[in-house]
Amino acid sequence: MSATTPITSTPVIEALMAAISCLSREEQAALVQQVQGKMDQEEDFPQWQMDIVEEREKLWRAGLVKPVPLEEGLRQVGERLRARGIMAE
Q: Does 5 map to a domain?
């Protein structure tokens, strides 16, 4: 979390903070390390999404697909959405 991101308090967070305040300094440090380790283990993207990215990368590396520049891809997506009436002209 960046310094500019406000931290929102919830009843759960408040209860956890109350419980944490009862811990010794060493226990608090151990807890911080455990929470950080858990956060580091979690992936930013679900595995199924990573599988798609890896498959597309394999196809690209094998020369079976040609990359599309971002601007062109966005244009194509916009055309498809407009054709389906999902996006206004």
A: no
pTM: 0.41
76 and 58 in one domain? yes
**8 A C-beta contact, residue 79 and residue 88:** no
63, 77: one domain: yes
**Which residue is it, tokens 């599988």?**
51
Label residue 78 by pLDDT band (50, 70, 90): very high
Q: CA 19, CA 14: separation in Å to the nearest integer?
A: 9
- 43 touches 50 (CB < 8 A): yes
Measured between alpha carbons, how far is residue 4 from residues 33, 36, 71 in Å?
23, 20, 31
Tell me how many domains the chain contains: 2
- Name the amino acid, one letter, at 3: A
